[in-house]
Amino acid sequence: MIEYIKGEISELTPTYAIIECNGIGYMINISVPTFSALENIKTTKLLVHEIIREDTHNLYGFINEQERSLFRLLIGVSGVGANTARMLLSSIAAPQLEQFILSGDHSQLKKVKGIGAKTAERIIVDLKDKIKPVYDALILQQPETNDVFEEALAALVMLGFNRIQSQKTLKKLFDVEPSIKVEAAIKKALSMM
Length: 193
Hints:
single chain; alpha+beta; 5-stranded mixed beta barrel; 9 helices
């Protein structure tokens, strides 16, 4: 089992990173907060969770142990797959997600695409006693780019949203907040869709 991958970032998008390690490029699925933490650096060490099935071998990367541990707990909940767990972690920062679970706030979980009332309640029931609260939130660097709209749009499309709907939602956001950053734009768009 792979514990982590350390190497040069050869490609970075809001949904995956390609890390080159000893001449091999590993495609690693990431969340939006991990993307933001990696955006302005050249090399990194990503903690990894592998999912190996008959027809696929996927790697999921995390900037810190809190995010990876929460991902592992989430995929252990019946009805929550890896992509749903990643969507939760992209929409709600790990420390805040833990607080919503600990406080039983299923209404916040239901705001995330793919999470209905039953799934939200199942997550809370299954994980409430398994989560140890961590109050030291990871400080993530805000991305600085002139193509914020395009990056946010690409991320939403890669997460499975309709391109036209995503463009309309982002346009509303950018009309109100023209200087919004990529991570914030994606999070707000996810809550609006």
